Amino acid sequence: MPSSAVEVLERGKIMGFLVPQAHGEKDVLIIHILYHLAQVRTTVYGLTNEQAHSVPSASSLNLTGLLRHCALVAAGWSNMVAQQTNVPDVPEDIGEDMYMEDCVSHPATLDETLEFFDRCVSYASEQMESITDLSAPMPVPDAPWYPPELESWEARWALTHIIGELARHVGHADIIRESIDGKGSYELNDLVDGLDPNREW
User: Fold this and answer.
1) How far is residue 124's CA from residue 75's CA, in Å, rounded to a whole number?
2) What's the CA angle centered on 118, arms 191 and 82, to 5 degrees?
3) 61 has a pLDDT exceeding 70
4) According to the model, what pLDDT value does residue 141 have?
5) What is the pLDDT of residues 179-199, one digit of tens each?
6) pTM (two decimals)
7) Which long-range contacts (C-beta less than 8 Å, at least 24 apart) are formed by 192-198?
8) Is the C-alpha dihedral spanning 115, 117, 122, 123 positive or negative?
């Protein structure tokens, strides 16, 4: 059964920059993660495959690369938090994490990238829903950029880390989309929801 956070996102419209209401610490953390994932997905709305793969700004990033990276972050980290391991063991059809450069250069089409993204989000939602103790210690992943004396952090900290990572990349995606055709997130949210961006409030 989906969490109340997932149900809110499925039945309600996501308004630009307003995260849907949720109750309880776990659902609040989950809905912020799902919201940021929904927002980064919105940035490719209406684009061609060529546009989604383009690199229109001073950054070396593109939107398909950001979608793939955010999907892998959500899948990998939610798995580690739920399973309390430091190496994600996600399904083979999702695969291991990739460096951002590999995500950006990945040859998958926009449609294929979106299908992969949605599978990862569905998997991440299931993993996060299975978390029973936000205070449970999670082993720190094996990476040279983490302090060697740091052995674990709480599950809630790891979920908050996902939020921060995704929020940063949503900002990247917003700038790249505006560089392509000038459309910003407010307009894109309205278009995705079938609303007139120029309507009077």
Assistant:
1) 5
2) 130
3) yes
4) 84
5) 999 999 989 988 888 889 888
6) 0.91
7) 192/42, 192/45, 193/13, 193/14
8) positive
